[in-house]
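Exercise 3.2. Students should predict the tertiary structure of the chain below and write it as structure tokens, then compare their answer with the key that follows.

Predict this chain's 3D structure.
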Amino acid sequence: MFKTSSAVFAGLLCLVFLGGPAAAQDATQPTIEVTATGTVFVDADMAHLDFMIKHTAQTAKEARDGNKKAITKFMKAMRKAGIRKKDITLKPVNLLVYKPQDLRYMDGLAPKLPEHHETAVRLVRVQVRGIKAPELPNVWRLVDAAMAAGADPVRDTRGYYSVTQAIPTFITLDISDQHAATRKAIKDGFSRAKEEASYSAGLAGLKLKGLKDAKLGHPTIELIKRDISTGYNQRLSQDYSMLGKIKASVAITATYEVSP
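Answer key:
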């Protein structure tokens, strides 16, 4: 799940009231308060890919030196694939120490390793812009280039593909303009709030006048998840139609003035 920054949220909150109805001075004016949630669905246009680069040697120095060479090879492959240096995040090197018995269940690798060996591991996050979900052509080309350069995708405990999406777990989808998505969600929220307030006022024999006050919850941006409560065939259809969609939402509590 992604969250809008506090600066963006503050700016959006100001936009709600700029040019909007002025608060009524008469405190006795009857009002109706409603709560609604504005929601929009946006196609993902960027992705974050997580890779692991490692090198095993008998000493820590050899492991680090080998890892450094592997990183250089990886960076050259990324530049050739059109990825900018500022879109690549390198995390610090970690050293892992294993003994042969630690690997006795791993395809017979243990007999081929020295009595003690160390592995230098470095995690890399690559940002890819201009993707087109759900095919993700730019992403798959980049994955091929990264693996050819010796990098391994970082898979989490959910396995190669995520539970909620038919997308490999080392790929995190995102949108480049969270500000615009949140503004659309706020606009949708006010539209829903006004509709609900108008309906409630009508039931009470009142007329809706204008917006007096509004409070916004913190906007959220998240990847669409499957609804496991629906039938399998319906769920499958929904999954593919929503694949790569990002959901932006915000809760709004709005107070409207009413009159007889």
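Discussion points: The chain has five helices and eleven strands. Residues 112 and 206 are 83 Å apart (CA to CA).
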